[in-house]
Amino acid sequence: MFAIDSIDMTDARAPARFLASLRDTGFAVLRAHPIDAGLIARLHAGWARFFADPAKRGWIRAPGSQSGYFPFRSENAKGVAVKDLKEFFHVYPDTALPPEIADDTREIYRQLSDLGTTLLGWIQEELPAGIRDRLSEPLPAMVAGSDRSLFRVLNYPPVGEDAEPGAVRAAAHEDINLITLLVAGSEPGLEARDTAGRWHAVPCDAGMIAVNGGDMLALATAGYLPATPHRVVNPAQGDHTARQSMPIFIHPRPEVRLAADKTAADYLAERLREIGLAD
Ligand SMILES: O=C(O)CCC(=O)C(=O)O
Ligand SMILES: [Fe+2]
């Protein structure tokens, strides 16, 4: 059975339940987490104004940079020819930000990075010793002082009849990083794939945070923790609602060894080429 657990972070059994859900499904959903609800609401409103304003084009990323605004149809999933129906803004610690939303954005970056470190600590403690011993250093140490974690603010505009055939909000993909923390989308649509190929809605209601393991975690744990493919499906025909979501992709320091022959920096460079974001 594929059951993504919804976990109250204050429960004494939370770390064990978190690991079990990640191991069985690649996902877990967190309730009673420490991220401030008012902060999330202000970010949703502020970034909605950003995406609604044509001045957003002034924030388009510089060629070769992974920071800044990526217009509609910038990214494709690995091996997929059509571009996803999304636009997004990539935030690193040194990214220039629209002044109206800069402080709140930096604050959530900090809070989500700290939460990511806590969750990596849970994984570290709960892993079987045989897997833990394979790690080149403890998981929380891999991200200590890292400036590579990426906060992505996503806007999925209303899907019109003119959408390219086969194009979806986000085609099936795995995340590249260690773990992803996703502040619940403003609308449903996120789905995870089980090992039999069936799709399941991720039960992440407003105010919750979905967490999933990425390819770097799968590599470092020799597959003990899977990187589960996921996607964002289009709304029903005639439903013209936009959707917003805000994942942070927690990345190790570039020199961290994920496997004997692979650093985080080598691995990331390979993967960015596959999704059309390296130039
Ligand atoms: O928008 C979502 O809910 C998921 C986005 C996602 O999977 C990604 O950007 O990697
Ligand atoms: Fe993803």
Description:
The chain has 279 residues and is α+β, with helices and mostly antiparallel strands. It has a single domain (46-274), classed as B-lactam Antibiotic, Isopenicillin N Synthase, Chain (Jelly Rolls), CATH 2.60.120.330. It has helices at 14-25, 37-52, 99-126, 129-132, 139-143, 215-220, 264-274; strands spanning 6-8, 27-31, 68-70, 87-91, 150-156, 170-173, 179-183, 190-193, 199-201, 209-213, 230-232, 243-250, 257-259, 262-263. The longest helix has 28 residues, at 99-126. It is globular and about 50 Å long. The structure holds 2-oxoglutaric acid and fe (ii) ion. It is an enzyme of class 1 (oxidoreductase). Keywords: Ethylene biosynthesis, Iron, Metal-binding, Oxidoreductase, Plasmid. GO terms for molecular function: 2-oxoglutarate oxygenase/decarboxylase (ethylene-forming) activity; metal ion binding. Its cofactor is Fe(2+).
